[in-house]
Specification:
The chain is α/β, with parallel strands linked by helices. It has helices at 15-31, 51-60, 77-93, 110-119; strands at residues 3-9, 38-43, 65-70, 98-101. It has one domain: Rossmann fold (3-Layer(aba) Sandwich), CATH 3.40.50.1400. It contains four helices and four strands; from the N terminus they run E-H-E-H-E-H-E-H. Strand 3 (65-70), helix 3 and strand 4 (98-101) form a beta-alpha-beta unit. It starts with a strand and ends in a 5-residue tail after the last helix.
Length: 124
């Protein structure tokens, strides 16, 4: 493995919410083709694996590049401070691994179309 995508969500006390993120990760893995050799998820708090555990899992599976995608709608404290801090701690232990944080979900130009599509779709 050389390239990994790590989807980072907040985490919830509700197992069904965390499982929703895991299912999304699985769908991404199926659909990503050759863009990523590995797709996994991690949680900031309240669920496992933690961000450092998720990064270590990717590295232990051979990733030399890890793209961290914050599955968050807004650039609050978690996106601006907490996630970068978690990444920095792992990067200091693995300086030879390229770990990059990409913009959070709320920054996506496609989000507007996705919301409109959901809002105007037939609920049945």
């Amino acid at each position: 493995m050389t390239r990994a995508l790590l989807v980072v969500a907040h985490g919830s006390r509700r197992d069904t919410s965390n499982e929703e993120v895991r299912k999304l990760t699985s769908r991404l893995s199926t659909k990503c083709g050759k863009k990523f050799d590995l797709v996994d998820c991690a949680f900031l708090e309240l669920a496992e694996p933690s961000i450092p555990e998720g990064l270590e899992r990717c590295i232990n599976q051979g990733a030399k590049e890890v793209i961290v995608f914050p599955y968050f709608l807004a650039a609050g404290r978690h996106v601006v401070t907490d996630i970068p801090g978690e990444i920095a701690a792992v990067t200091s232990r693995h300086p030879n691994i390229d770990i990059r944080l990409v913009p959070h979900l709320g920054q996506s130009a496609q989000l507007v179309d996705a919301i409109l599509g959901l809002a105007t779709s037939d609920p049945a």
